[in-house]
Amino acid sequence: MKDKTTPSLETSKKDEKRYSTLNLGPTHPATHGIFQNVLTMDGETILGAEQTIGYIHRAFEKIAERRPYYQITTLTDRMNYCSSPLNNIGWHLAVEKLLGVETNKRIDYMRIIVMELARISDHLICNSVIGVDSGALTGFIYVFEEREKIYEIYEELCGARLTTNLGRVGGFDRDFSPTAIRKIRELMKRLPKILHEFENLLMRNRIFMDRTINVGSISAERALNYSFTGPCLRAAGVDYDVRVNEPYSSYNDFDFIVPIGQNGDTYDRFCVRETEMWESMKLINNALENMPEGKFNAEVPAFYMPPKEEVYSKMEPLISHFKMVMGEIDVPKKEIYHAVEGGNGELGFYVVSDGGRTPYRLHFRRPSFIYYQAYPEMIVGSTISDAILTMSSMNIIAGELDA
Amino acid sequence: MDIQILYKSGLIIVILLLSLVIAMYATLAERKIAGFFQDRLGPNRAGIFGLLQPVADGVKLFFKEEFMPATADKFLYVLGPSLTMLIALLGSAVIPWGNTLVIGNNVFPLQVADVNIGVLYVFAVTSIGVYGIMIGGWSSNNKYALMGAVRAASQMISYELAMGMALIAIVMMSGSLSLHDIVAQQHGIHWNVWYQPIGFFVFVICAFAETNRTPFDLPECDSELIGGYHTEYSSMKLGFYLFSEYINMFISSAMIASLYFGGYNFPFLHELGMSHNWLTIVGTFVLFAKIGFFMFLFMWVRWTLPRFRYDQLMRFGWKVLLPLAIVNIVATGVIYELFKK
Description:
Helix content of chain A is 49%, strand content 10%. By secondary structure, chain A is mostly helical. Chain A has a domain at 102-298 and 379-394: Cytochrome-c3 Hydrogenase, chain B. In chain A, helix 4 runs antiparallel to helix 5, helix 5 runs antiparallel to helix 6 (178-202) and helix 6 (178-202) runs antiparallel to helix 11 (266-289). Chain B is mostly helical. The chains are: A mainly alpha, B mainly alpha.
């Protein structure tokens, strides 16, 4: 058997050192999703890294060019599937900007509640997965139950759990039911206790701190050069949050803290996300208490389904229902960019419309895609264990990475 | 004499079966305890309280496809798990499971072999244990497996040192390498843990490392190395690796209990006014209770703590545990000289 490539202990005859190539992914337990890193290793140390993308590329931007606006919402579900409602509402806000629709405060506040719930569920998963990847599974299970509660709230709001397709252009398809409000209040009562428990398990744990401090750090300058946003940028010490810098959906009515870190390392990213969860809870509580009365949908009949009773009994609603479902609705000729603070960072929608029923061109600004570009720089010189923690702390989600 | 040979053979079989059954049910206990820590039920479908789960797992593993990587070294690939299992089972030979049973004129010690170098024997056996992991990881011709094997080898060797150093202090105090003597000296509540607290901590930490349990489970490290040294293993060969981990845990717990917690000794045993044989039997149960507690400790830690990084593990072993153990030896010597009666 000459073709065997069993590693051998005999040292290389030549003086040069030989390095091994290690495929981290596409199917590796720590690449939560499908993406590949080709690492050049010297023992446990990473000397070079090359990232590959495109394993679950589904050409969303191209598909969107053939879809009426309201149907693109379902594509956004499948990007960062840990916080689908955030993507949905981000897209709705972008379309509203394109159409020039004003929404009332009630819609804004309802949206804030949903978006912050999505942010909490996103951060819960990201932070607990850092724990899982460093070997502590229990914290993950604790907070996963709370994520389940959040998904139950989604179910109550829109009927779906993972790919939510929540809300409509111009607001919501239905009001928050009393059950939904009760569930949100219950969650707000439960969550602080569980989150404290989770933080007690990890935040001041010596082993966890040793594993994460100064691991996968990136300077504020490099982060800005890569156009990092969201928790990863804030961990590096840059005070930038779309909710504050470019307020949308009445975020400026609320008072909340934007946490920032210092070193831009895994631990700072962890802590920034933890603090953001506490702030999100504050936002949800405030929005629930100060929720004004009003309609839950804005006046965009072209994007808002008429009630079924009217569709079946009157002509005009039937026509508008038909036109809407077939997507035969024109939008103004315009070019807009709208961004929301997604779970991972600035989730932007760049829409070019030439008037027809579909966008002429649509670009999703996906934070995971941008973070992943910096990944080799962040892990070269560290060990494989660090590389895995860095990856999970940046919350790279394959669906968002490849879109 | 014949009756002694018969008795020893019987004892060997009993202890062998006991180790296997305890390892089997340790897998169930681990999953139940994990469930307890994680607010869930754990396995409860096979049999009442899931008591048949280990059997079901075993049957499943036996019926799984025997997969062997095409480029693996066939002989070594099979040797790896076999060796691990064999070595894991050898350790139980010198552990005193109880005092003696006296029936008529015959004295039956509840220990397979009272070797006068019992401690060294256990060490020798656990050191060989790393060969099984190394051979398995290396021969499966997978980079992740190889990394796991390399980690296992360096980890075991590093922590063996500190472990040995911690033990030397015990040997200095007891003046014997025989496990039987060491246990017998800890009668009543004179357990070594009161005299050797530092040595005890070093020993327990090293025992975690030796059995590859969290926070030292770097050789298998599922989130980094997929499965570590057993990445390429399937069916009962994988079962052997997993199984031997639990047997090692059992033996390590027995060692901790014997060396530091008085083995089968328990306080006030003479005040109970029981006959010698009854005391022996109660002592054996006490020993198993102690073992059970330490096995629970192993699981408790596993479901609580994250794991170290490779370099931190090495630093901890060489720069913290080893100096600590050496200081412990010196301190033991000084105190022993000053206060010996």
